[in-house]
Hints:
The protein is α/β, with parallel strands linked by helices. Among the domains are: 9-68 and 93-178, 3-Layer(aba) Sandwich (Rossmann fold), CATH 3.40.50; 183-299 and 341-361, Argininosuccinate synthetase, chain A, domain 2, CATH 3.90.1260. The protein has twelve helices and 14 strands. The protein has a five-stranded parallel β-sheet, sandwiched between helices. The longest helix is centred in the C-terminal third of the chain and has 23 residues, at 385-407. The mean pLDDT is 94.
Amino acid sequence: MAPNKDIKKVVLAYSGGLDTSIILKWLQNEYHCEVITFTADLGQGEELEPARKKAEMLGIRQIYMEDLREEFVRDFVFPMFRANAVYEGVYLLGTSIARPLIAKRLVEIAAETGADAVAHGATGKGNDQVRFELSALALNPDIRVIAPWREWDLQSRTRLIEYAELNQIPVPRDKRGEAPFSVDANLLHTSSEGKVLEDPAQPAPDYVYQRTVDPEKAPNEPEMVTVGFERGDAVSVNGEKLSPAMLLTRLNDLGGKHGVGRLDLVENRFVGMKSRGIYETPGGTILLAAHRGIESITLDRGAAHLKDEIMPRYAELIYNGLWFSPEREMLQALIDKSQEQVTGEITLKLYKGSASVIARSSNHSLYSEDLVTFEEGTGTYDHHDAEGFIRLNALRLRTYAARRRRLG
């Protein structure tokens, strides 16, 4: 695709790494436009200041660097966890849920600075290009999006290095060879894929895991942790009130120490191919177990089962980049309504890779010990009522069986 010469100013999602530094220079060379960089701290655990210095070295005058950890957890992670969302039964959507926030800020910065377009470094094979662009266009239908990986001819590591050297972009020694795998990280998870992980028949090497200890090497003594909830959102750990980002950080530390939250997954990408990823989501794994635990005593059966029915659809919307779609917002309204009484405390046992709920308490509980006791209750439940209930539910089954017997 030929560069659009109308574009005068672009906001680039910029990590400061080699790839986005090459993209920055490529935009300057091919589009002859001003580039504004945006670097978000989503809890990836890396210093952001080197990205600023790199951008300055490449001649960038407007540099945005923002700590979005609280907004990320409060406005994106927590609403998703109210739905207990998992993609294809196991994936906690750590990469997927970060993209709409980055796209939102790209579009906002473009509006603030009068930029014509936004740009990202996602490749033409992955899901992220879809997530960035669907989010951006949902927020500004007129925004133009530049995806260099779909336009340029720098399709090999060698070509990228050559371009960097030609344009005087420093290439660290450890970036000259092929990386053993690629990593995406934020406060919710770490994702590793590619290269050494591409053969799903081969176990992932131990060095791939960065956020969790090997469960076999985790402490031999279990650790108890109590998570407090208010209206479906976690608000405390072991009685200490914490902000959303600080709470997830605390759960990450606890889960990582006990090897909680590892996942080796072959998933179906939205673009049509299967891919293998190694995910580490220690705090999120604890949070999911705790949230389902508090829902088990505070949600009515019909509400709980309806949530479970719509959850795969909700998770797929997030995975496919449709966070800002009307259907996701409609489902969110239903989910948030269900959380009005989801308040209380859950105690879990962390031990060698597992996070198991062992106790639940809530002033909003629907659990009645009197109803379920094997001892004599107060008489609010009449055992004889069950006979009519069973006979009515068996009516259609008996009719079906009678026809089968009659027709042989």
